[in-house]
Amino acid sequence: MAPGGQEQVVGSQSGPQAAAGVDRIEVGAGSAPASWAGRIRRVATSRPAIGMFLAIALGFGCYAVARDWSSIRAGLDRLTPTELAAGLGCVVLALTAGLMQWRAVLTDLGSPLPLRTAGRVFFLGQLGKYLPGSVWAALGQMELGKAHDVPRRRSAAAYAVTMLTTLIAAVVVAAVLLPFVEPGQLHTYVWVLLAVPVGLVALLPPVLRPLLAAVFKLLRQPPPEHPVTGKGTALAFGWAVVGWLCYGLQIWVLTSALGAPSGRGFTASVGGFALAWSVGFLVLFAPAGAGAREATLVVLLTAVLPADTALLAALVSRLLMTAADLLTAGLALAATRRSR
Fold it and tell me: Which of 2, 147, 189, 297 could tie 276 with a disulfide, CB 3.0–4.6 Å?
């Protein structure tokens, strides 16, 4: 080690290496951990590693569909190609709203990205949600964003704020619409109604900033350099509401085709899907909320459909959402290659 505990820099600090931002590595006892950490990080962010991550995520996603294929096939037989295409289009619009929501948060935190670049990071990274656990989508976006000069802690903060605004928007949409499905059963949704003011207060910057700081302190990481603002959070919340309306329209297309009444079917579909996603999100071990989301959605849709038909709608929705994830990820890759 250098005298007095000073760190030495390997190589010259001039020339291309300095321009590339060569890390300062301490020589001696501390050099091995830094060296190994650098190697692991380079391997994790390499193209083969990212390709393996995507392949594994897609495998889990396809497995979730294949597991219930016989029931999904029964639902497909009762729907026309036009109805399926309309449902798929609604999901693609919802995912696009999700992209705009995440991009608005990232811009608010100080890392604006071009739309094409943001699409690549967002759509490819979110395939990690199909892996067991709830961290892979965040890790995927962090590593993909790093390639575009987005600090990892900023990506982590953007993911956290995006998920929070998404969850609170889902609760708000469910609280507004579900009481109209069966007014006599309003007591069933009291807990949803009570959660709305708590969630909205949590989005206020004076409350949200300490929450983020506490999360980063728990992770023993420095908080993001730029604090969230009210404007950025409000914009993200607005895009989240648009996303839930589009997701709900997908369910409404399916339930209407399967015989649900249009009026009550709309409120049950939009509000029901938003609440079902919230339940699936809170079940941390289920990839993309698989199982928990469908079970909750079926219960809520039985207000307008028989239970077996509601199950068909939920399973076909799972297929459409997986297909939309693959489609948007493929389009993001194709757009990146064309730009290169």
Answer: 297
